[in-house]
UniProtKB/TrEMBL annotation:
PANTHER family: HYDROLASE-RELATED, PHOSPHOGLYCOLATE PHOSPHATASE. It is an enzyme of class 3 (hydrolase). The keyword Ubl conjugation does not apply. Its EC number is 3.1.3.18. Pfam families: HAD_2 (PF13419). This is Phosphoglycolate phosphatase. One of its GO terms (molecular function) is phosphoglycolate phosphatase activity. The lineage of its organism: Bacteria, Pseudomonadati, Pseudomonadota, Alphaproteobacteria, Rhodobacterales. InterPro entries: HAD-like_hydrolase_sf, HAD-like_sf, HAD-SF_hydro_IA, HAD_2, HAD_sf, PGP-like_dom2. GO terms for cellular component: cytosol. It comes from Ruegeria arenilitoris.
Length: 223
């Protein structure tokens, strides 16, 4: 009898890695390069998870499309430079992430994937830096999908893995992740250590405060 496959999808920034220093630094550099007022830290972190053009449009709604495009390119350049300078230290894994990922990967019925607002280049570099480049069987990135909370990333991951929506979960730190999960018909598990306040994760089936809680919550969600 064929074992029932389950899919665990992770957001990246604010869920697997703490990249806020890199994000705030790159966004600050991008705005300063055009002599524009820099959004405050809270505003910058509030858009983490959105595709970059959407994020910039929210942070600079009064700027022209041409200026927003320049901000996008400036952010990409600054973020890339910061990553080259700092390596894996620019986005450290949250405590317990590596151990829990390893334990889930060891279960034959569980497939692991990523659904992130990062670019393909950014995600691949990050996973390689942390030695996780062979872990995730499906990688959904901003290059190929509408921004969260559109369900396209999750729907494509389900298609690629052959897993049904009822046997999948989306783990993330933002309301965008939880709304995307709900739109795709999968359970959303929020994390309390990320960039959106816990109160914004109302669409989640459960919220965890430590990575070590995840296996138990997965068991409860899947029954």
């Amino acid at each position: 009898m064929t074992a029932l496959l389950r899919l665990v999808l992770f957001d990246v920034d604010g869920t697997l890695v703490d990249s806020q220093a890199s994000i705030v630094s790159a966004m600050t550099a991008s705005f300063q390069a055009l002599s524009l007022p820099v959004p405050d830290r809270a505003a910058i972190l509030s858009i983490v998870g959105l595709s970059l053009p959407i994020a910039i449009a929210r942070l600079a709604p009064d700027q022209s499309q041409a200026t927003q495009s320049r901000l996008v390119e400036g952010y990409k350049e600054a973020y890339h430079a910061h990553r080259l300078e700092m390596g894996a230290a620019s986005s450290p894994l949250y405590p317990g992430a590596r151990e829990v990922i390893g334990s889930l990967q060891a279960v034959p019925e569980i497939l692991l994937g990523v659904a992130t607002g990062k670019s393909q280049r950014g995600l691949d570099a990050l996973l390689e830096a942390h030695g996780l480049d062979s872990v995730f069987v499906t990688r959904q990135v901003a290059d190929h999908h509408p921004s969260k909370p559109h369900p396209s990333m999750i729907e494509t991951a389900l298609f690629e893995t052959g897993v049904s929506a009822g046997d999948a979960v989306m783990i993330g730190d933002t309301s965008f992740d939880m709304e995307m999960a709900r739109a795709a018909g999968v359970a959303g598990i929020g994390v309390g250590w990320g960039y959106h306040d816990r109160s914004q994760l109302s669409a989640a089936s459960a919220v965890i405060d430590r990575f070590e809680q995840l296996p138990g919550v997965l068991t409860a969600v899947w029954g």
